[in-house]
Amino acid sequence: MAGRGDDSPAGGEPSLFARLAVGVFRHRGRVLVGTLVLLAAAVWALLRGGHLTTGTIEGIESAKAEALARGAAAGSNDQTLAVIFHHDEWTTDEPRFAQAVTSVLSRVERLPEVASVVSPIGAPEAFRARFVARTGHDLLALVRLKGGEREATAAFPAVRAALEDPNLRTTLTGKVAFLAALNELLEHDLLRAELLSFPLALVVLLWVFRTVVAAMLPLVVGGLAVLCGVAGVMLLSHATNMAQYTLNVVSLIGLGVAIDYSLFIVSRFRSELALGLSTEHALTRTLDTAGRAVAFSGLAVTVGLGGLLFFRGSYLSAMGLGGALVVAFAVLFALTVLPALLAWLGPRVDRGRLPFARKEGRGGAWHALATWVMRHPWWVLLPTLTLLLAMGLPFRRLQLAATDITALPERTEARQGAETLARLFPREAATRVLVAVEFPSGNPLTPERAGALYDASRRVASMPGVVGVESAVDLGPGMDRATVLRMAAAPPQMLPPELQAARAAYVTGNVAVMQVLTSSAPSSLEARNLVRALREERTVGDGQWLVGGQTATDVDAAAFVKHHTPAAVGFVMGMTCIVLFVLLRSVVLPLKALLMNLLSLAGSFGALVWIFQEGHLHRLLRFEPGPIEPSLPILLFCALFGLSMDYEVLLLSRIREEYLRTGDNTHAVAEGLERTGGLITSAAAIMVAVFAAFTLASVVVVKAMGLGMAIAVALDATLVRVLIVPAMMRLMGDFNWWGPGHWRRSHTRAQGTEVRP
């Protein structure tokens, strides 16, 4: 082991990372034992499981409307299953068909998870006509489940099993069926992506390292980070609302960054060993350089994901928390477990050399590229900037809408059921906009309030796109205003039983519920315009209404994201600048890094709109085009803004080393590009391989997330970091390193190197 002076560039006190390296080297056994304990705890957390839900946003108007209407049977369809019974030969008017349906529904109604069952069996003819298809072989029943969304989704498997009958074919659809299918597909997608990403990453690592042992180490760290990150999400789900595809996000980000960080450290360790240093000294130099870059890269990624915490009250903040957690594990294992393994292996890290091993050394393609970029910076800069800006143009046409049943593959029962429902029972399948009218107190159906509700119902029915209104004052085609007033004045027990039940379905406490039907698709512009029109006039007598339903949730979610995005973006960009300033002691380079990140993100976002919204490549990738999930752009921004810093920190750290050593900006940029270009592209190839595995997902939002991140990383590593950044730094010269005099003087003294002004 060299003396203390060798552990620090100036020969003074060893840096924090050098001391960490010495501690890990001397106590590597304890580090590995502690890792095994943490691994056992993670396995326990996974076996315990969690409470994962779909993405929800608290406090928006649509959520408030749903809460007000929850006590009414007709208030919300979120916990209602639409069950279509079919028999190829039996007709719905045959006794055996009715007996079979009654037997099934009686069994289901006894389940503790079921709140109510609505069936046309024995119902009045007017009601029966709505629930019996003209085919004569199909009948619709509605099964309402107890509890909220989480409880209803958990109860779905038991209810689905109870609806099975050997004589009938049953098809289920509805939001609960959709969520159950979505969760199952997300779990399947996650498993398949991980099974594919590890072999793909191994192939790239073998190509980079040319030795089996070195190639396996990043996979070990990546597996540990993902396992502990997923376990952490499971534990957090008991205390906060965690969306199901948080696991996919955590796995995608954690595996990518953990392998990248390990790649940086293993590469630098092998380089230091090749210089003839001892294992301990090589490890010290590695953590003092590559380890420092990893720590700052991890901090940058965490800062990026921290931007999601500004979306408090939504699933986005929980995703940011889960993502930051897995990145923290990736940095922790890269700076402790990996060095401990390297200390144990030493020169044996090069065991298992492959027959296509290349010669290590200077020169080659990266030397030629670095020289060419330094000689022709304008020829590099202008075409690449033009290409990225052109790729970003489609982003101006962005449309947002929440994930709906069309995100499921056509083979799933919930989607097939939705299509069958729309074909056989178009009124029941129509888009419903929920209107919850809250009165100050008392009965919502006094004569005065019933009259006001009737007037409001007629006004709504005349709106463009409305095909029907269902409420306590719309119980039949013959109900005029006078009839409504007489019914409101009569004692409830004097009404016919069917009218009593129907009125009760649309009233809960001091709230009256109205369902507005439209033939427009939930995510269409026409449906959104209807929601906005309903919100223009809210007064109904002495009451006020709130608007909910899927379309209203889309409108509110988009507004929620738009409202919180400026603060999140400002935080991410500001904190990233601070992190880079502390690392590089330059004011100019952090600002340039922000611009470069925005360029690569623009190209990725434009590609997402072009592919997933406008439908290009939909046959190749097998998805149905449609609007982008509202959370996807901000999720990608926060994640990719931090991930892009990986390569920026690695490149600029090496350039800065050379600039502090020589004071020659052009030489430093060329040398930094030559030494890190191959590593950056190799790391990017691993990330692209990991992210590309997620493009095979069945769920469109996961497919889009994986492809968007793969495109962004590919653009960042090929065009931005190895072409645009060096060309701009060549043109800016020594101005790259401008910073406050105090920082520059103190840092120069600490390095013991004179920096040319």
Q: Your description of this structure?
A:
The chain is an alpha+beta fold. The protein has four domains: 14-48 and 211-353, Multidrug efflux transporter AcrB transmembrane fold, CATH 1.20.1640; 61-173, Alpha-Beta Plaits (2-Layer Sandwich), CATH 3.30.70; 362-409 and 564-738, Multidrug efflux transporter AcrB transmembrane fold, CATH 1.20.1640.10; 440-541, no CATH class. It contains 27 helices and twelve strands. It has helices spanning 16-26, 28-48, 61-69, 95-109, 125-131, 149-162, 175-209, 212-236, 246-274, 279-306, 315-335, 337-345, 365-375, 377-392, 413-424, 426-429, 447-461, 481-489, 497-505, 525-534, 550-584, 588-613, 618-621, 631-662, 665-693, 700-732, 741-751, and strands at residues 52-53, 80-86, 114-118, 138-145, 169-173, 242-243, 431-438, 466-471, 507-508, 511-518, 539-540, 543-548. The strands form three sheets. Strands 7, 8, 9, 10, 11 and 12 form a six-stranded antiparallel β-sheet that branches. A hairpin with a 2-residue loop joins β11 (539-540) and β12. The protein is elongated, with a radius of gyration of 31 Å. The two termini are 36 Å apart.
